[in-house]
Specification:
By secondary structure, the chain is α+β, with helices and mostly antiparallel strands. About 30% of the residues lie in helices and about 35% in strands. Strands 1-2-3-4-5-7-6 form a seven-stranded mixed beta sheet, with helices on both faces. A hairpin with a 5-residue loop joins strand 2 and strand 3.
Length: about 170
Amino acid sequence: MVIRLLRETDAEAYRDVRLRALQESPEAFGSSYEEETQWTVAQFAEKLAVTPERWMLGAFDGKGKLVGVIGWYRGARLKIRHKSHIVAVYVEPEHRGKGIAKQLLSQVIDRVRTETDVEQIQLTVAADSAAHALYRSKGFAEFGREQQGLKVGEGYVDLCHMVLHIEK
């Protein structure tokens, strides 16, 4: 398994993984498959532009196929620059149970701790999901719950807001 920053040149592979994520796990994302299928590869490439304020990591299997992703960004305004966010976490189903999400998450935490002055990482996750348990295992603490935070079809998903305070 190789984990590295995604670049604009990874846009087609990222698009494939992202659309699969939205289609297979609609309860895990605020965006929808119907919305993002309208995007061009160039629009996905824009999302992968690496800056000090935002980047995405990808996990590649032994054959070089993108099988997992995690995004990070920090607040742009002066009063919220101490906070950052994890977004768009996904591992393809056939690669789950191998610790890939945990590796991706660990690399984000390590990068934030060593390369930024960010004091906390926040995220939002479907309450009581496997991902929720993973984040708790890495030290994230819940600071709020949002009942019916997402509406997927005719059903609702409760969301859990979590934070990890970064020790320098």
